[in-house]
């Protein structure tokens, strides 16, 4: 069911949309801009449901919600509403003038059973210049019943003439604790929820994907097994983990995990407490590392990790970058272990 109450972390956008619905001033063209997984499509479809709902619910404090029970709400939920058009791309990397002309033609036809006709354009940043110019004709002289919802990862590729005729709503990264609570509410255990929320970068979609991806969980377990006793890891174990990560295109995921692991070590070392750890199931190993590793070594680990990130962005061989990173961390940890014995 599409409900504004189910959208987390986008209160400003939701308040604006609900006020527009309540006052009947919903824009004929709206850009929803946010990172992948930020909830753009859910917000767009909830707004569509509210615009077409036959029994829109308005609370005393001014919040609006689609009823979820009328024929329009049921059709939107099933993806079969005749007055909602969702653009489907012909090519994976662009939206051409042909797709936009088809949307324009559909929008010229009167609504079948509603006061509005809605077009949703996912990945609108992929529109070619020609496609945007074709869309301008509808933006400049929209039918009174038409609403265009453009979903995009950013507005940099839009023509100024397109931007000037749309309302732009920027979606923000969802706070980590809100993502974690959402996952826990959906039955994910607390440690896994905390880790997925940390790795999500504020994207609810990415967090849900991570939580449901058993391959990702298995790779996390392999990485944690190595980090627990990295000073004792043999080179074959390092190479094996790196091969697993490279095969699954998991380098970025691993760097996020590495950041979180040594963040926990630093928090434990600084505070002497395990209350704020992300890896709550690894307290024994986190405490042991906090007791053994010096602040200088933790700084060294942070530096080599940052260097690895820069090398990956520069497209240096991923396998070599990760192997060097882990061997450098192993050497730094071994040095402190020897010093402590």
Concise summary:
56% of the residues lie in helices and 8% in strands.
Topology:
Elements: H1 11-23, E1 29-33, H2 40-52, E2 57-58, E3 64-65, H3 71-78, E4 84-86, H4 97-108, E5 117-121, H5 129-140, E6 146-152, H6 160-163, E7 167-170, H7 176-185, H8 190-199, H9 204-212, H10 214-228, H11 235-247, H12 251-271, H13 283-292, H14 295-313, H15 318-340
Parallel strand pairs: 1-6, 1-7, 4-5, 5-6
Antiparallel strand pairs: 2-3
Helix pairs in contact: 1-2, 2-3, 4-5, 7-8, 8-9, 10-11, 10-12, 11-15, 12-13, 12-14, 14-15
Give a verbal description of the structure.
The chain is elongated and about 75 Å long. The protein contains 15 helices and 7 strands. It has helices at residues 11-23, 40-52, 71-78, 97-108, 129-140, 160-163, 176-185, 190-199, 204-212, 214-228, 235-247, 251-271, 283-292, 295-313, 318-340, and strands at residues 29-33, 57-58, 64-65, 84-86, 117-121, 146-152, 167-170. The protein has 2 domains: 4-170, P-loop containing nucleotide triphosphate hydrolases (Rossmann fold, 3-Layer(aba) Sandwich), CATH 3.40.50.300; 213-340, Zinc Finger, Delta Prime, domain 3 (Up-down Bundle). Helices cover 56% and strands 8% of the residues. With 341 residues, the chain is α/β, with parallel strands linked by helices. α7 crosses α8 and α8 crosses α9 (204-212). A 5-stranded parallel β-sheet has the order 4-5-6-1-7, sandwiched between helices. Strands 2-3 form a two-stranded antiparallel sheet. The model has no long low-confidence stretch (mean pLDDT 89). It starts with 10 loop residues before the first helix and ends with a helix.
């Amino acid at each position: 069911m599409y409900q504004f109450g189910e959208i987390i972390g986008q209160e400003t956008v939701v308040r604006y949309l609900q006020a527009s619905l309540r006052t009947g001033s919903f824009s004929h063209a709206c850009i929803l801009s946010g990172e992948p997984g930020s909830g753009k499509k859910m917000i767009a479809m909830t707004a569509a449901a509210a615009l077409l709902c036959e029994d829109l619910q308005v609370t005393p404090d001014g919040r609006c919600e689609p009823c979820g029970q009328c024929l329009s709400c049921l059709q939107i939920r099933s993806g079969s509403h005749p007055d909602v058009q969702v653009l489907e791309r012909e090519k994976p990397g662009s939206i051409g003038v042909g797709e936009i002309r088809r949307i324009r033609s559909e929008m010229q036809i009167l609504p079948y059973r509603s006061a509005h006709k809605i077009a949703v354009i996912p990945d609108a940043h992929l529109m070619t210049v020609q496609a945007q110019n074709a869309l301008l004709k509808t933006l400049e002289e929209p039918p009174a019943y038409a609403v265009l919802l453009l979903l995009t990862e950013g507005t940099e590729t839009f023509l100024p003439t397109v931007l000037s005729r749309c309302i732009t709503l920027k979606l923000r990264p969802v706070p980590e604790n809100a993502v974690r609570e959402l996952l826990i509410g959906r039955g994910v255990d607390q440690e896994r929820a905390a880790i997925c929320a940390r790795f999500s970068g504020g994207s609810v979609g990415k967090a849900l994907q991570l939580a449901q991806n058993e391959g990702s969980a298995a790779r996390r377990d392999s990485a944690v097994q190595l980090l627990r006793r990295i000073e004792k890891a043999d080179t074959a174990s390092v190479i094996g983990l790196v091969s697993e990560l490279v095969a699954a295109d998991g380098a970025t995921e691993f760097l996020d995990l590495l950041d979180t692991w040594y963040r926990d070590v630093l928090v434990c070392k600084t505070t002497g407490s395990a209350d704020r750890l992300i890896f709550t199931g690894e307290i024994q190993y986190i405490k042991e590392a906090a007791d053994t590793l010096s602040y200088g070594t933790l700084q060294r680990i942070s530096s080599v990790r940052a260097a690895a990130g820069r090398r990956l962005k520069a497209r240096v061989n991923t396998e070599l970058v990760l192997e060097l990173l882990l061997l450098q961390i192993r050497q730094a940890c071994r040095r402190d272990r020897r010093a402590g014995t």
